[in-house]
Amino acid sequence: MTAPPAPAPLSPAWAAQPTVEVRAVSKWFGQKVAVSDLTCAFGPGVTGLLGPNGAGKTTLLRMLVGLLSPSDGEIAVMGRDPRHRPDVYRSLAMVPEEDAVYGFQTARQFARYAAVLSGVGPEAADRAIATVELGDAADRPISGFSKGMRQRAKVAAALVLDAPILVLDEPLNGTDPVQRAHLIATFRSLAAAGRTVIVSSHVLAEVERMADRVLAIVDGKLAAAGDVASIRQAMTDIPYRVRLEADDARRLAAALVESSAVGAVTVEGRVLTVETGDLAGLGRAVAPLARSLGLRLSLFEPEDLSLESVFRYLVRGR
């Protein structure tokens, strides 16, 4: 089978220095198509895999680590096929979405078991336990852990090998805000050290905090790729939404509707929500307009420079 050509280097779906390559990959289960003709690549840094539940994210990640074979297309990890080159597994570590833990083990035993399977010493497990800040509970059975603590135990087991590629399927599920912030900082630190970190999530705020680059998947297909700002700028067929706050919102709204940069305005108390196709033009116009009316403008916040709007756009009409 002839490998499909790599996309142009400037394609936002293709990493500049790819460690994981996905070429025209599809996966189906009977009549159900889980992933459809997907081409993308991952490289050093944090890449967020964003999509609603059932979008195909988990199926893709399982193919990346060799747990599933593509129905069509090719996957290469460090230039090797994970289904036919077992040596590639020394380059990979995965945190699965499901609770793949042994409840009778302590967190330390679980991490050391991963160390034995990986052929590294027990000190690697102890370092991983410390990295996820689970030391105080490391010698308690996992069966008594909260969901967030079990997630950290799974991350510790994945970190034992110190693999250059880390695949994380919904790793923050069930974590509290403190745990979540620490894990996000850990993932970003690993990426800063040159590792490839691939994180899937359906929680928009998580992806936005973790990832510099986003691949959005909807119905098994690549719907968008790039950083948040570039994806939003490409959405030229829908307006930006901007929140404004002024001491006389209705008077400001009445003046704004006369502007060519404004498509619609709604008012609730002191807050205006403005729709515009020209965000920069609105930004230039609104402050002088408020001054000319003698109004105090206390907020100018583009709502749609976030993954929330990107996500709404991508799943629109589903």
Strand content: 25-35%
The profile of the biggest β sheet is: 6 strands, mixed
Helicity range of the residues?
Answer: 25-40%
- Judged by helices, strands and strand pairing, the structural class is alpha/beta
Which stretches of 5+ consecutive residues score pLDDT under 50? none
The outline comes out as: globular
Strand and helix map with partners:
Layout (H helix, E strand, L loop, with lengths): L19 E10 L2 E11 L2 E6 L6 H8 L7 E6 L14 E4 L11 H12 L3 H10 L15 H13 L5 E5 L7 H16 L3 E6 L2 H7 L2 E6 L2 E6 L1 H7 L5 E7 L2 H8 L7 E5 L2 E6 L2 H14 L4 E6 L4 H8 L4
Parallel strand pairs: 3-7, 3-8, 5-6, 6-7
Antiparallel strand pairs: 1-2, 1-4, 8-9, 10-12, 10-13, 11-12
Helix pairs in contact: 2-3, 2-4, 3-4
Descriptive overview:
The chain has 318 residues and is α/β, with parallel strands linked by helices. It contains 10 helices and 13 strands. The strands form 3 sheets. It has a 6-stranded mixed β-sheet with strand order 5-6-7-3-8-9, sandwiched between helices. A 4-stranded antiparallel β-sheet has the order 11-12-10-13, with helices on one face.
